[in-house]
Amino acid sequence: MDSPVWARLSAAERSAVDGLIQRNHRIAAVARVREAFRAETKPDLHETLDVVAERYRELGRRFEPYPTPPLNLATLTERVAALPGPAVAIEALWDGDTDGWYVDLMALTDVPVAEHWLATIRHGGDLRLFNGAVPPWSEAQEAGTVGRALAEQFGVLFHFASPDQPDDEAPRWRATQGASHWEEPQAQSQR
Description:
Layout: H1 4-8, H2 11-22, H3 26-35, H4 45-58, H5 73-81, E1 87-97, E2 100-110, E3 113-121, H6 127-130, H7 138-154, E4 157-159, H8 173-177, H9 180-189
Parallel strand pairs: 1-4
Antiparallel strand pairs: 1-2, 2-3
């Protein structure tokens, strides 16, 4: 590896970073590289990410998370049909972690009032943003296509408040329906 940042690390630090990478601890590896330098010589975050990503490749590991397999409508239909109560909506929600954004597909029931996870859709990590690979967000497109088809099968609404960009604070379906829509079944289920 011909990175000047990597070259400035001691053999012990390089070994520690490689050990973190072997355990797939991306954030800890980035932090370890940055902590090895004094403030005035510390590489910026982008340089450090490049070093860690290159080490992943050299060690035969994948830096980006693997994409989830395509959704299977028949399997999701079985999951919704097996819920403890009838679905009242299918909802797609953005969420994120240290690897990046993804979409969760959920089924909502009123009796009992609950959210039921159906699937997670991830087509890559946030490095796609730096590579100019998004938008459009392909996981949002898949969630929209499959979510609408699933909702249609059960005769319920499909809700995706932010299909064009990640937003984990977008309004949820229940919030758009008003509290009276779902509080009554919740109270009945407690009797």
